[in-house]
């Protein structure tokens, strides 16, 4: 059995793992809230969000609070399915290692 | 709570995760056996083994079978401790996401 057979390459980054786990349990989360929760820089977060968006794992919503732009993110059905698969593969690897 | 707070950056690669999980449950494993189990190329495996060795998470043993060189790898105490910490952090992230 290949202990890493079903791991998803897109989730090979801690920050992308973090984004997906936050979006699994929150309807919509703003860029700033994600940045605070995951303790990452703007640039770092933006590039990882871009990769997740390209893979259609998350959706971007451009809104306004007063006259200030407010960008929020939510997980897609595809993203949820892919991430659940990755978590199951991680659990299998953890079991393999014990 | 930062869902990725305690994840170890060294284990941010599927292949390094795979090497560590195999070495957690095997005394010593040869380069070729690792390559077969993880379904990776020579170059890819060699570079990830190098990173794990630099972090003192694995040890290299240069031996011979007949006149053929036989290189094997084993996990270090430091590696075992670091990987167990990473697995615990992954489990916490998985719980956070459900």
TrEMBL record, chains A, B:
Gene3D superfamilies: Winged helix-like DNA-binding domain superfamily/Winged helix DNA-binding domain (1.10.10.10). InterPro entries: WH-like_DNA-bd_sf (IPR036388), WH_DNA-bd_dom (IPR027395), WH_DNA-bd_sf (IPR036390). Pfam families: HTH_34. PANTHER family: BSL7504 PROTEIN. It comes from the Bacteria. It comes from Chitinophaga alhagiae. Coiled coil: none annotated. Residues 15-94 form the Winged helix DNA-binding domain. This is Transcriptional regulator.
């Amino acid at each position: 059995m290949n202990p890493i057979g079903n791991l998803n390459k897109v989730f090979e980054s801690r920050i992308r793992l973090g984004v997906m786990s936050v979006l699994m349990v929150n309807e919509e989360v703003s860029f700033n809230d994600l940045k605070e929760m995951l303790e990452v820089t703007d640039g770092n977060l933006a590039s990882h969000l871009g990769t997740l968006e390209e893979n259609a794992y998350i959706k971007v919503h451009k809104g306004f609070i007063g006259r200030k732009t407010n960008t929020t993110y939510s997980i897609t059905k595809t993203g949820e399915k892919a991430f659940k698969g990755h978590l199951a593969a991680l659990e299998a690897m953890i079991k393999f290692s014990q």
